[in-house]
Design a protein that fits this description.
By secondary structure, this protein is an alpha+beta fold. The protein is globular and about 90 Å long. The protein starts with a helix and ends with a helix.
Length: about 750
């Protein structure tokens, strides 16, 4: 009788769901059905197969008051209107084309400050292969992706459905068995604890969509105990910060129907119960405990009537408690990086049409979409051609460099930053190598181009290198600072101990060299290098070098701020949340545009000031936006979801020493790039080391054929002249290029 009552409630909910007005987004390749409450209820592909329904609503808010879900989602003309529970409203424009839909937030009227705006969630089957860079799932012959159309859109991927965990030293098993108290099947929950007491294990599931358990009186379940004294916890969660924890001490044997009406924790929102989990807590050491669990129900009272809502009966073979979890991809915006603007694409298409579909999406969304030789960047023949990475170069060595480029049959010459640039930030030209400054660099670029080669510039995009005026003699206030303290006493201009009011715990222990974060602090307009921290009174910094990097040593007053300047790969970082990003990118663009460059290599793109997905996108876009030649080959040491659209290929750089061993070590990462539809450049291989023999280079060049990729030969004219095998290596490269 109880099972029939629960079934009636489930059926009535299903009928109500089917009667609601749904939003159908037809992509030709797929049909997406979004129900009135904002859930992706169905995704039917054009070949008749489907993607699973989502267990999370699209278009919901996270505010200081908690989660705010949609009340209604509907299409009005070419717009989608979302009304939320608190009467907040979001309006999106909708552009549908074969293979994709572009959503752009037109208006957000929020009733309270928004911490996060979830824009869309798409569920994927358990066998889907995730491609995190492009925020996609690949299943069979299909690809489904959620792509940002603004740099502040965060891509996310997650597992949902099944949850399991154990304290270290504990293991568990949760299986479906035919020893049921109700129906045919029950669950056997077995866990083992090591010699340490207080062990715990957990198995849980997400509901396909949150349950409304408003009016919950008690949780009821059949349990068969083993009298081992462990605590069985049945927990429900609302998907945010609310929980209900019900505990049962297993001090009995045999089947018992238990009613749990006095939860130890009860902060849950009952109108949106999202998960159900089973825990063992307080497991006895060096023992195995076992319970059988069946027919877990919620007893609710509404309008004076008692109702039974089934939570889990363990009958389904596909229950998330023992089947594989589903995967999901989503996009959202965050308060710290700007909730607005917000625009994204839902791309669902056959794998073989992914590039073509994304190229059209980029056009519709106004995303960067370079075309190299009039071909979309990732499909352009340019990305398959190897390049000469020219280092240690001066304009007077033009003929030697040209001879190397010709013998290697290269397509592109990329000039390293240290050869052309005096310091990054202002990007003044290195007049030691180019006595006529920018005119000399322009002349060199033109001469290489007239000789039949493309020409590009390498640079460390986020860097400020001394002696740049942004750093010295007066540091710009817009450099990245990541730790702070206060001076404990007045300080003269000679002291080599800098006292702080408290222990400088957030400051690096030491400089750390090339990989470190640096040991440079700033007080007022003075930079100071410290050799060690003092973590016991008197607190502060020891072994200090005052007036560092050409700044002026000065007296300072008690209470002045002491700030750590963050370094990356030996340079200082400019704060991309300030106007300095615009200034620095403008300075670089003056050089790049004057030289009409065909390629830009953004080095140092991985170690940035905060969230990589955001700051990497901001960095690349700022420089790209200033380029006059948009159809240049852009490459970087690191790629984000948004900058994927700008970059033509991704490199594995710095091959030196054992070139074969280096390539073998790096090659597993090449599969990640392939999965993310990113063409490969297998890297820079140094021509300085005289122990690097032609057979090593042939091994690398064979890989360019196998991976259908480019490579780069990195050398200076002087080093090339000293290497005994330079000519033979260049002849090998030329043969493979042909």
């Amino acid at each position: 009788m109880k099972r029939r009552a629960a079934l009636a409630i489930v059926l009535s909910c299903a009928v109500a769901h089917l009667s609601r007005a749904d939003l159908v987004v037809d992509l030709t390749t797929a049909q997406i059905t979004i129900d009135e409450q904002g859930y992706v209820a169905a995704v039917k592909l054009s070949d008749g197969t489907s993607l699973p329904a989502s267990n999370q609503p699209t278009f919901h808010l996270e505010t200081e008051s908690g989660l705010v879900l949609p009340r209604s989602v509907k299409q009005v003309g070419e717009k989608v209107e979302v009304v939320l529970e608190d009467d907040s409203k979001a309006v999106f424009t909708l552009d549908r084309q074969p293979g994709f839909a572009l959503f752009r937030l037109e208006r957000l009227d929020a009733r309270s400050p928004v911490k996060r705006l979830n824009l869309f969630t798409l569920a994927l089957p358990p066998d889907a292969e995730l491609a995190g860079m492009i925020n996609a799932g690949i299943t069979g012959q299909w690809c489904a992706a959620l792509m940002a159309a603004e740099p502040n859109i965060q891509p996310l991927s997650a597992m949902f459905g099944s949850h399991k965990a154990d304290r270290e030293g504990c293991t568990h098993e949760f299986v479906r068995i035919e020893e049921a108290k109700a129906g045919r099947y029950a669950a056997r929950f077995t866990a083992t604890c090591n010699e340490k007491s207080g062990g715990w294990s957990m198995r849980g599931r997400s509901f396909s969509r949150p349950l409304d358990l408003t009016g919950l009186k008690t949780v009821r379940a059949w349990v068969r105990g083993d009298r081992n004294g462990q605590s069985l916890k049945i927990q429900m969660n609302d998907g945010a910060s609310g929980y209900r924890d019900d505990y049962l001490t297993i001090d009995f044997e045999g089947w018992r129907q238990v009613e749990l009406a006095n939860p130890a924790i009860n902060s849950i929102r009952y109108d949106r119960v999202a998960t159900l989990s089973f825990y063992y807590n307080g497991m006895p050491p060096d023992q195995t405990v076992t319970c059988l669990i069946d027919q877990v129900e919620a007893v609710v009272e509404r309008d004076g009537n008692e109702q039974i809502i089934l939570l889990e009966d363990f009958e389904s073979l596909d229950s998330p408690l023992w089947s594989d979890s589903l995967r999901s991809i989503s996009v959202r915006t965050l308060e710290e990086h700007g909730v607005e603007p917000a625009a994204f694409g839902v791309i669902i298409c056959p794998k073989k049409r992914f590039y073509e579909t994304v190229a059209r999406f980029e056009g519709a969304a106004g995303l960067p979409s370079p075309r190299l030789g009039n071909v979309w960047n990732k499909q352009s023949p340019w990305v398959k051609r190897s390049y000469f990475f020219l280092t240690g170069f001066a304009e007077s060595q033009f003929d030697e460099a040209l001879a190397i480029a010709r013998r290697g049959n290269f397509d592109m010459i990329l000039l390293v930053q240290s050869s052309w640039c005096e310091s990054t930030g202002h990007y003044e030209i290195n007049r030691k190598n180019f006595p006529d400054g920018l005119e000399g660099l322009k002349r060199t670029a033109r001469r290489f181009r007239d000789a039949g080669f493309k020409f590009g510039l390498h640079f460390l995009g986020p860097s400020i290198y001394p002696p740049d005026p942004y750093l010295t003699p007066v540091p710009d206030p817009r450099l990245v600072k990541d730790a702070f303290a206060l001076l404990a006493t007045d300080l003269d201009d000679q002291a080599d101990f800098i006292p702080t009011a408290e222990a400088p715990t957030g400051f690096p222990v030491e400089d750390g060299g090339y990989r470190g974060s640096g040991a440079v602090i700033q007080i007022g307009d003075e930079l100071i290098f410290y050799g060690a921290r003092s973590m016991e009174a008197p607190f502060g910094f020891r072994e200090c070098r005052r007036g560092y990097l050409g700044t002026k040593a000065s007296p300072h007053k008690k209470g002045e701020k002491v700030a750590h300047l963050l370094k990356s790969y030996g340079y200082f970082l400019f704060d991309m949340d300030t106007s300095l990003l615009d200034e620095v990118s403008t300075n670089f663009a003056k050089v790049a545009n004057a030289c009409d460059v065909d390629m830009i290599y953004f080095d140092g793109s991985e170690r940035l000031q905060g969230d990589h997905w955001y700051y990497n996108a901001r960095l690349h876009k700022a420089f790209y936006d200033k380029l006059q030649k948009k159809n240049a080959l852009l490459q970087a040491s690191s790629t984000s979801h948004y900058s994927w659209h700008m970059l033509a290929r991704n490199a594995s750089a710095d091959g030196h020493g054992d070139l074969k061993g280096y390539l073998d070590e790096r090659s597993p990462g090449f599969l990640y790039l392939a999965r993310n539809a990113m063409p490969l450049d297998i890297g820079w291989y140094y021509g300085y080391d005289t122990s690097a023999t032609p057979d090593m280079y042939e091994y690398v060049l064979g890989a360019t054929i196998g991976y259908d990729s480019s490579m780069s030969f990195q050398v200076s004219p002087a080093a090339a002249a000293e290497h005994p095998f330079t000519g033979e290596i260049l002849d090998l490269i030329a043969r493979y290029e042909k």
